[in-house]
Amino acid sequence: MINVNFKNHFTVQWRSFAQLAFLDRQISGFFIFLAIAFVSVWSAFAAIIAVLINNSLSLIIKDYTLQEWRLGIAGYNGAIIGMYWGDSILSIKGLCLFLITLLVCLFLEFRLRALLIPRQLPVLSLPAMLSILVIVLTISIFSFDPNYLFFTGKAVPILQTYSREIAIILVVSAMAYQYPLATLQTLGVSLVGGLIAQWFTGLNFYALVDLWAINLPLAYFSIKTLFLKHSSLSTLAATMNTLLAGCIWFFWLITGLEQLSAPLLFPFILSSLITLIFFRRYKDHNLLQSELWRTFQLLLLNRLKAKHCVAITGSGIRKGALPDYPSGQWLDPKVPITSYTLAEFKASKRCRYLYWKASYDYYQQALTMNKNNIDKQLDSLLNYYLSGLFTETVDSLLTNEQHPIYECYGSIKNLYCLDCAQQQAWPPVPLWLQRDLHCQHCSGLLKPQILAADENIDPECYQALQTNMANCGSLLVIGVPAVTPVVSMIIENANANKIPIIFIGTLPSTYLLEAKDIQLTGDIANWLTNINWFTNILHPLKWYCKWKK
Asked: 208 and 265 share a domain?
């Protein structure tokens, strides 16, 4: 078995070099090896020796799985050691330091893997960096000719001119060979970071090469193509990692740590570990959900395009504290639904009794309810962002002094006359048990102001709905468990005009999500809190664009 694996050494060697840029193809590793050689022939020679030693020992010690070994993961730290000491390897002292550092690196790698892998964190190039730092500090403390530490030999590039430029082209080619789009993004990030650093520090662009050519690209590229490759937040995480790496590099420069040791890969390593810990620990947090950021983007575009946002709420905002009105949960299941129609209410005293009884029970439950956090968040949204708020609830808990709230199915807290439509309050005692209730103005028959099974939506509410949807940029469907006639009418209007729909809390049954739509599943109050936070940030934009509620 070991003999067969040793035959794979040639492939594994190049893959180890590819792992320096978080790649895994032989051709990519060969390009990176050539890039090292163009900068320093002896560094390339030492790197390939170190990779061979690391891969061979790792295969024998078995500190890596066979799959990891075949991917070249066991050898890339050795390549870094070789690159660091390569230009002094021809001297006895340089060769000894190279071999000692390599052994320290192997030991640290073994220990760090035992510490980090169970926590789902990569070791990265931390073993190589720590081993180099240990040797450098040891020699400095014991005064073993510290000037010798930093390359007694001179770098011997393949070409006298443009070797560094060719090396950069080779590395970029290796990255683009596997991940062209991520490579293009990485180049943009690196260029911007380098220019900002040049402006901030006043240093020459090439003097900042360890920032823009090493730490920033690795910070962005590694997250984007490997660690969070399949995450919908890979771009956000990669950007955060890059910014953090840049901050650590600047901290290293400002505090004078570079006098102790060059930053090398430490900014990239530290930022990557922090980023991975953060995203894996808070991966379920609302602010790290890609759908929420899609929502933010949509709300921003609406504001800039002077578009309205309309919302409709369902029984989900009551969190089960009240029966769902549109589905008829408030009715007696033993009584046929036809007994609760308006026609039967007018014609039959028994049906009026059944209707009053169900309505009164619902009314009593509604009286015990108070505004919850969802109501407060909706109230804030209506003040700052929503042009119209429609609700399927009938408890009248959603109120706003400045803007109307349309109760599509009426209000359980009022009565109204079937003849003159005048509203009246519920009597203090249940007089409907003894007799029919009549209007104080025209003596017409009174009825709870909630729609019966055969009643149509209020014309004023319908007109307001059509008016608001005419200039709607997005529709919020909040806590709606099922597609009712009202919801169906609103959604069909939105789909016909290609208006994005944001479903918050749950997706209505029987509805199929379209590509333009967004679904925020879970706690409605938390989602609305985040949306309110963002709309408060957007609020000043109303002074810069022609937007009216």
From this structure: yes
Does one domain contain both 14 and 108? yes
166 and 187 part of one domain: no
Whole domain around residue 212: which residue ranges?
180-282
89 SS3 class: coil
Q: What secondary structure does DSSP assign to 129-196, as a single string? A: HHHHHHHHHHHHHTTS-GGGTS-SS----SSSSSHHHHHHHHHHHHHHHH-HHHHHHHHHHHHHHHHH
Picking from 15, 30, 110, the residue whose alpha carbon sits closest to that of residue 71 is 15
Cα Rg of the chain (Å, integer)? 34
Q: What is the per-residue pLDDT across 166-194, written as a single tens digit (0 to 9) for each?
A: 999 999 999 999 999 999 999 999 999 98
Contacts for 146 with CB less than 8 Å, ≥ 6 apart = 139, 140
What residues have CB less than 8 Å from 90, skipping those under 6 apart?
42, 153
Domains held by the chain: number: 3
Choose among 324, 407, 414: nearest CA to 363: 414
Give the global pTM. 0.69
Verify that 147 and 69 share a domain, yes or no: yes
Domain end (from 282, 303, 337): 282
pLDDT in tens, 38-56: 998 999 999 999 999 999 8
- Judge if 88 and 30 occupy the same domain: yes
SS3 417: strand
Burial of residue 412 (number of CB atoms within 10 Å: 0-12, 13-18, 19+): buried
User: Do residues 264 and 303 share a domain?
Assistant: no
